[in-house]
Structure formats: C-alpha cells, structure tokens
Amino acid sequence: MLAIWVALLVPALWGIYWLPLRYLESHVSAGAWTNVMVLVIGCLVMLPMAWLKRHAPGHASRIGLYSTLLGGVAFTLYSVGLLYGNVATVIVLFYMTPVWSILIARWGLGTPVSRWRYAAILLGLTGVFLVLNSGDTSGLPLPQSIGDWLGLLSGLLWSIGSTGMNRHARLHPAVSNLLFCLGALAAAILLSLMLGTPSEQPKGAPDFGAIVSAVLAIGILWWALSLTAFMWSVTRLDPARLGIFMMTEVIVGAISSALLADEPYTPLMALGTGLVITAGFCEALSTRTGRSVSVG
User: Fold this and answer.
1) Cα–Cα distance for residue pair 23/41, rounded to 1 Å
2) Treating both helix axes as pointing N-terminal to C-terminal, what angle do 267-288 and 248-260 enclose, rounded to 10 degrees?
3) Binning pLDDT at 50, 70 and 90, where does residue 179 land?
4) Quick check: is 66 in a domain?
5) Distance from CA of residue 211 to its chain's centroid?
6) DSSP, res 31
7) Within a domain: 294
8) The EamA domain covers which part of the protein (predicted)?
9) How confident is the model over 50-96, as pLDDT tens digits?
10) Which domain holds residue 116?
11) Sign (positive or negative) of CA dihedral 54, 57, 59, 64
12) Domain annotation covers residue 169
C-alpha cells in the first residue's frame, strides 16, 4: 500500500512542479539556468545518500546506466519546457509516452501490438491533435513554442530511457536517482548555454530569501526525495498499475494550470487531455491482459 500511495502522490506532486519553478523564475529570470540551480542542490543531496548505498544489492549494464542518465535528460527538457511553453500543453505532450513506448516496442523490440495498443495510439494522437489545435484550423496542429517542442521531445526520450531502465537497470533507488540527477544537470547546463538568459530581468532588488527557499524546496523535495521514493515504488509495482497511477500528474497539472496559470485552457484542450489520459489506460490495460510487454 505504501508503494501505491507513493506512485499516486509523487506524480501528483510533479503536476504542480510548474508552480514553484515559475515562482523561482519570476525572481531570477534566468531561463534554463533556473534548472541548473535546483539540480545542483538535488545532486548534492543525493550524493551522500547514494554513497551510503553504494554496496547495496543491484546491478546495471552499460545500457542501463545510459538509460538512467537519459531519463534525467528527459526530465530536464520537460522542466525547461514548463518555463517556455503552455503548462497544460507541455504536460500533455510529455504524456505522449504511451504512443512512443508502443512504437519502440513494435519497431525496436519486435513486440506484437494488441488492439488495446492500437487504441492507445489513436486516442493519444487524437488528444494531442485537439490540445495543439484548440479551435484553430488554419494550419497543421504542430507545437508552436520551444516549450511545446521540448515537452514533445522529453516524452520521446523518457520512453527510450524508461525502456532501458526497465530492462537493464536494477540499482538502489538512491544510486539510480543520483545518476538520474547527474544526467539532468548535464542536460540543463547544455540547454542553458544554447538558450541563454531572457532579456527581461526582474524589477527591483532580488529577494534572496525567496530565491534560496525556492531552490532548496525544488531541489530537495522534487528532484531528490520524491524521485528517489518514486524509483523505490517502481521496483514494487507492475508496469500496468504504475502507468495508471502516473496519470495523476496529467490530471493535477491540467487542473492546476487551468485554475492558477494565466494561460488559455479551452474545452477542446480539456477533451484532448482526457483522451491522452485514456490512451494511458489503454496501454496499461494492454499490459495487464498479458498480450504485450509494457516498456513505458
């Protein structure tokens, strides 16, 4: 039961991740460098935890290690995407993972695709079509901002990384999360160098108390503690149930952004969000029925 509650609450917590992240950004206006600050804290917190568990039972092949690092890269793209794009859109694009996972299973691993997985592809693509279109039929429904593209790419990379982690890595959660955070930090630095800093800077003297509090809260609560707990729950729950539980992030993220973010959230976007959630259920049902192997 503890693993179930962790698998439910950690994604829900990440559903409001954009709130402290944007709060911090409003005080520093550093763009992608905001993520570097919080990830440095996350890595520093994880280092002694991972060191204490360095001899714990577990193993990972080279593919498993690279996959764990790639998972961190995916989360960095997702995090930066939340700063540069519409919150609900970025979250929905990230949760295109069932579609990517099915394609990886079919074309990369040769896994047979059941009718439930074809339904997941159809529902997922339709949902994203509605979220991106949002009543505008003047052109193709493609991601419009760099944040949208980062959200889409993060979901693809997470599907690849989680596939390798599931098949080739069995590390202690603390060790796994340290590698995860290191991959995220490397990607954050590279992305920050590519994107630079915003031209607009916050007015007035910086509130160092607010900045330090936000950096510590995000780095410790979200990146260090919650992800370590989530990786612990992953080893105790089957992929089908886990996939369903993770949809709490989409629900909480969509509701919180609709209520608290000054961003448009149309009925079409709400319908598209629901279809993407349903696609995740179809993917989980496909795994539960035993017709194919989940890799997402």
Assistant:
1) 17
2) 170
3) very high
4) yes
5) 23
6) T
7) no
8) 2-132, 146-279
9) 999 988 888 888 998 999 999 999 999 999 999 999 999 999 999 88
10) 2-197+206-288
11) negative
12) yes
